[in-house]
Amino acid sequence: MSNIDFILEEKAADIGNFLVGRLLPFRQKRSIGPFVFIDHMGPACLADHENLDVGPHPHIGLSTLTYLFDGAIFHRDSIGTAMEITPGAVNWMTAGKGVVHSERTPEHLRTRDKYMHGLQIWVALPKELEFMDPEFHHTEAKDIPAWEDENANYKLIAGEAFGRKSPVPVYSRLYMLEIKAKHDAVIDIRGELYGESGLYILEGEIKSGEHAYGPKQILITKDAHLCTFEITAGTTVYIFGGEPFPEERFISWNFVATSKEILDQAKQDWVERKFPKVPDDDGYVPLPAPRV
């Protein structure tokens, strides 16, 4: 990818009893366009007694995007949503002024061996929508724009690019794109993207100039308009980005806001149990203790 500004390595993190690779944020780079948080879940093979169980926890000031490569997650939230997500579909939950949700292995899989692999993403909301009412939208895999050329297969998971628009209802100018290479080729998408851009290599290898990059690396550029790179057969990459916001975003635990005062109020509200409940899931994830 031409004009690379950062090369970052995926780092490990824990969510409940599940190990994930943290792609964003990093100390060197806190956001990419409106994207402020990206986790790579798995790949993991879970035994019949192992399950994903992230109990009810809150969010404000963001939208979450869940996209699975393998496995299934059952989502419940305080809006009243109860939805299983499967590979290729998109769960898009907008927290706004406050939402609570849980993510668990579906009941029909809890006593079976199963796989889990996917991405979980946070997209900050524009300042004027920071306190909007929460929403949830599910987009089936068949409704995601997909096309191919002589070099690769493409999917526009969210946002706008290549003259196409995903049905996922985003609130800022952004894109999330999947590219799967058919054979060794040059991917030239100059002029198709905009703003800042990150390229995550899920599998395979890409080359930019004399340098080669492999799985679990993320390449970041400040000018996505100039994006071009070599790709090897069988490689899968995800490109995400868009126009950055003029205001800084602060992140604390599961909260994103334009001020630290908003974050502090959200934490106090969670401790005092002022957030709405999740129907049919009475768990509670406590606020983490402050780091010393």
UniProtKB/TrEMBL annotation:
Binding residues for Fe cation: 57, 59, 101, 103
Keyword tRNA processing: no
Record key words, sorted: Iron, Metal-binding
Domain Pirin C-terminal: 177-275
InterPro entries on file: Pirin (IPR012093), Pirin_C_dom (IPR008778), Pirin_N_dom (IPR003829), RmlC-like_jellyroll (IPR014710), RmlC_Cupin_sf (IPR011051)
Cofactors named for this entry: Fe cation
CDD domains: cupin_pirin_N (cd02909)
Cofactor comment: Binds 1 Fe cation per subunit.
Molecular function (Gene Ontology), one example: metal ion binding
Pfam families: Pirin (PF02678), Pirin_C (PF05726)
Entry-linked Gene3D superfamilies: Jelly Rolls
Domain Pirin N-terminal, residue spans: 26-123
Similarity comment: family membership: Belongs to the pirin family.
Official protein name in the record: Pirin family protein
Organism: Sphingobacterium corticibacter
